[in-house]
Request: fold
Amino acid sequence: MINNYIIKVCGITDKKNFSALKKYPIDLFGFIFYDKSPRYIFNNPDHNFIKNINNKVAVFVNEKMDKVLSILETYNFSYVQLHGNEDSDYCIKLKKKGIKIIKSYLIKNEEDLKTIKMDLDSVDYLLFDYKSDNYGGSGKTFDWKILNNKVYNKPFFLSGGLSLNNINNIKMIDDNKIPYGLDLNSKFEISPGLKDVEKISKLFNLNL
Reply:
Protein backbone atom coordinates (compact mmCIF):
# COMPACT_ATOMS: atom_id res chain seq x y z
CA MET A 1 0.00 0.00 0.00
CA ILE A 2 1.09 3.57 -0.62
CA ASN A 3 0.70 4.16 3.11
CA ASN A 4 3.75 1.98 3.67
CA TYR A 5 5.81 4.98 2.56
CA ILE A 6 6.26 8.45 3.97
CA ILE A 7 4.68 10.72 1.34
CA LYS A 8 6.25 14.13 0.77
CA VAL A 9 4.68 16.58 -1.67
CA CYS A 10 7.23 19.20 -2.60
CA GLY A 11 7.10 22.61 -4.25
CA ILE A 12 3.74 23.88 -2.99
CA THR A 13 3.17 27.60 -3.50
CA ASP A 14 -0.56 28.25 -3.11
CA LYS A 15 -2.67 28.42 0.06
CA LYS A 16 -5.91 27.12 -1.52
CA ASN A 17 -4.00 24.31 -3.17
CA PHE A 18 -2.45 23.36 0.16
CA SER A 19 -5.88 23.38 1.83
CA ALA A 20 -7.10 20.88 -0.74
CA LEU A 21 -4.01 18.69 -0.31
CA LYS A 22 -4.09 18.53 3.47
CA LYS A 23 -7.27 16.44 3.32
CA TYR A 24 -5.07 13.53 2.22
CA PRO A 25 -2.65 11.56 4.44
CA ILE A 26 0.42 13.43 3.21
CA ASP A 27 3.22 13.17 5.77
CA LEU A 28 5.41 16.11 4.72
CA PHE A 29 4.84 19.27 2.69
CA GLY A 30 7.87 20.81 0.98
CA PHE A 31 8.38 24.53 0.35
CA ILE A 32 11.21 25.72 -1.87
CA PHE A 33 13.40 28.65 -0.86
CA TYR A 34 15.57 28.67 -3.98
CA ASP A 35 14.94 31.79 -6.03
CA LYS A 36 15.80 30.17 -9.37
CA SER A 37 13.04 27.60 -8.96
CA PRO A 38 9.63 28.17 -10.59
CA ARG A 39 8.27 26.86 -7.28
CA TYR A 40 9.99 29.54 -5.17
CA ILE A 41 7.57 30.14 -2.31
CA PHE A 42 8.43 33.84 -2.00
CA ASN A 43 7.11 34.42 -5.53
CA ASN A 44 3.71 34.26 -3.85
CA PRO A 45 3.18 37.41 -1.70
CA ASP A 46 0.58 35.45 0.30
CA HIS A 47 3.05 32.88 1.67
CA ASN A 48 2.54 33.36 5.41
CA PHE A 49 0.10 30.43 5.50
CA ILE A 50 3.12 28.13 5.79
CA LYS A 51 3.82 29.31 9.36
CA ASN A 52 1.05 27.22 10.89
CA ILE A 53 1.84 23.98 9.06
CA ASN A 54 3.49 21.46 11.36
CA ASN A 55 4.74 18.73 9.04
CA LYS A 56 6.76 20.82 6.58
CA VAL A 57 10.20 20.85 4.97
CA ALA A 58 12.19 23.92 3.86
CA VAL A 59 14.20 23.23 0.70
CA PHE A 60 17.44 25.16 0.11
CA VAL A 61 20.20 25.10 -2.50
CA ASN A 62 23.61 26.36 -1.35
CA GLU A 63 21.99 29.09 0.74
CA LYS A 64 23.90 31.17 3.30
CA MET A 65 23.55 29.79 6.79
CA ASP A 66 22.29 33.05 8.31
CA LYS A 67 19.44 33.21 5.81
CA VAL A 68 18.54 29.56 6.36
CA LEU A 69 18.38 30.01 10.12
CA SER A 70 16.28 33.16 9.76
CA ILE A 71 13.74 31.41 7.50
CA LEU A 72 13.56 28.35 9.75
CA GLU A 73 12.83 30.51 12.76
CA THR A 74 10.40 32.88 11.05
CA TYR A 75 8.29 30.13 9.49
CA ASN A 76 8.66 27.45 12.20
CA PHE A 77 10.45 24.73 10.24
CA SER A 78 11.95 21.68 11.91
CA TYR A 79 13.02 19.90 8.69
CA VAL A 80 15.32 21.10 5.93
CA GLN A 81 16.14 19.51 2.60
CA LEU A 82 19.55 20.52 1.29
CA HIS A 83 19.66 20.16 -2.46
CA GLY A 84 23.05 21.66 -3.28
CA ASN A 85 26.69 21.09 -2.34
CA GLU A 86 26.29 21.69 1.38
CA ASP A 87 29.06 19.93 3.34
CA SER A 88 28.96 18.05 6.63
CA ASP A 89 29.93 21.14 8.68
CA TYR A 90 26.94 22.97 7.23
CA CYS A 91 24.63 20.09 8.12
CA ILE A 92 26.02 19.72 11.63
CA LYS A 93 25.43 23.42 12.37
CA LEU A 94 21.76 22.93 11.53
CA LYS A 95 21.50 19.67 13.48
CA LYS A 96 22.82 21.46 16.56
CA LYS A 97 19.77 23.71 16.28
CA GLY A 98 17.51 20.65 16.50
CA ILE A 99 16.78 20.59 12.76
CA LYS A 100 16.21 17.29 10.94
CA ILE A 101 18.31 17.11 7.75
CA ILE A 102 17.28 15.55 4.43
CA LYS A 103 20.30 15.62 2.10
CA SER A 104 19.77 15.26 -1.63
CA TYR A 105 22.12 13.35 -3.89
CA LEU A 106 21.79 13.67 -7.66
CA ILE A 107 22.04 10.55 -9.81
CA LYS A 108 21.86 9.87 -13.53
CA ASN A 109 23.68 6.54 -13.73
CA GLU A 110 25.42 3.91 -11.62
CA GLU A 111 28.74 5.75 -11.78
CA ASP A 112 27.16 8.77 -10.09
CA LEU A 113 25.94 6.54 -7.28
CA LYS A 114 29.37 4.94 -6.86
CA THR A 115 31.21 8.25 -6.65
CA ILE A 116 28.83 10.00 -4.23
CA LYS A 117 30.32 10.63 -0.82
CA MET A 118 27.46 10.49 1.65
CA ASP A 119 27.88 12.38 4.92
CA LEU A 120 25.87 9.86 6.89
CA ASP A 121 26.85 11.15 10.32
CA SER A 122 25.62 14.67 9.62
CA VAL A 123 22.19 13.94 8.13
CA ASP A 124 18.99 12.18 9.17
CA TYR A 125 17.67 11.13 5.76
CA LEU A 126 19.03 10.72 2.24
CA LEU A 127 17.15 11.71 -0.90
CA PHE A 128 18.03 10.39 -4.35
CA ASP A 129 16.97 12.61 -7.24
CA TYR A 130 17.62 12.70 -10.98
CA LYS A 131 20.78 14.60 -11.91
CA SER A 132 19.65 17.39 -14.21
CA ASP A 133 21.16 20.72 -15.27
CA ASN A 134 18.95 22.47 -12.74
CA TYR A 135 18.14 21.56 -9.15
CA GLY A 136 14.98 19.45 -8.87
CA GLY A 137 11.64 19.39 -10.62
CA SER A 138 13.01 17.95 -13.88
CA GLY A 139 10.32 15.29 -14.17
CA LYS A 140 12.99 12.75 -15.15
CA THR A 141 13.88 9.48 -13.46
CA PHE A 142 17.09 7.50 -13.11
CA ASP A 143 17.19 3.70 -13.22
CA TRP A 144 15.97 2.83 -9.73
CA LYS A 145 17.45 -0.67 -9.96
CA ILE A 146 20.94 0.77 -9.43
CA LEU A 147 19.95 1.53 -5.84
CA ASN A 148 20.22 -2.21 -5.22
CA ASN A 149 24.01 -1.98 -5.63
CA LYS A 150 24.80 0.15 -2.60
CA VAL A 151 24.40 -0.17 1.16
CA TYR A 152 22.55 2.63 2.97
CA ASN A 153 22.79 3.24 6.67
CA LYS A 154 20.11 5.91 6.61
CA PRO A 155 16.46 5.90 5.47
CA PHE A 156 16.08 7.47 2.06
CA PHE A 157 13.49 9.28 -0.03
CA LEU A 158 13.09 8.46 -3.71
CA SER A 159 12.64 11.49 -5.94
CA GLY A 160 12.81 12.48 -9.59
CA GLY A 161 9.92 12.04 -11.98
CA LEU A 162 7.71 9.88 -9.76
CA SER A 163 4.30 9.63 -11.40
CA LEU A 164 1.14 7.55 -11.39
CA ASN A 165 2.49 5.78 -14.47
CA ASN A 166 5.82 4.67 -13.02
CA ILE A 167 5.42 4.56 -9.26
CA ASN A 168 4.64 0.85 -9.37
CA ASN A 169 8.22 0.32 -10.62
CA ILE A 170 9.42 0.84 -7.06
CA LYS A 171 9.09 -2.94 -6.93
CA MET A 172 12.37 -3.08 -8.88
CA ILE A 173 14.12 -2.03 -5.68
CA ASP A 174 15.09 -4.91 -3.40
CA ASP A 175 12.87 -5.45 -0.38
CA ASN A 176 15.73 -4.73 2.02
CA LYS A 177 16.45 -1.40 0.30
CA ILE A 178 13.00 0.01 -0.35
CA PRO A 179 12.56 3.76 0.12
CA TYR A 180 11.51 5.22 3.42
CA GLY A 181 9.64 7.94 1.57
CA LEU A 182 8.45 9.12 -1.84
CA ASP A 183 9.07 12.72 -2.88
CA LEU A 184 6.40 13.93 -5.32
CA ASN A 185 6.73 17.05 -7.41
CA SER A 186 6.43 17.89 -11.11
CA LYS A 187 4.46 14.83 -12.27
CA PHE A 188 1.75 15.64 -9.74
CA GLU A 189 1.24 19.21 -10.93
CA ILE A 190 -1.11 21.23 -13.11
CA SER A 191 1.63 23.85 -13.42
CA PRO A 192 4.83 24.55 -11.45
CA GLY A 193 3.86 24.99 -7.81
CA LEU A 194 0.19 24.07 -8.30
CA LYS A 195 -0.41 20.44 -7.39
CA ASP A 196 -2.93 18.23 -9.16
CA VAL A 197 -5.28 17.19 -6.36
CA GLU A 198 -6.99 14.60 -8.56
CA LYS A 199 -3.68 12.83 -9.16
CA ILE A 200 -2.87 12.95 -5.44
CA SER A 201 -6.26 11.38 -4.75
CA LYS A 202 -5.53 8.59 -7.25
CA LEU A 203 -2.15 8.01 -5.63
CA PHE A 204 -3.74 7.11 -2.30
CA ASN A 205 -5.93 4.54 -4.01
CA LEU A 206 -2.98 2.65 -5.47
CA ASN A 207 -2.05 -0.78 -4.22
CA LEU A 208 1.75 -0.94 -4.39
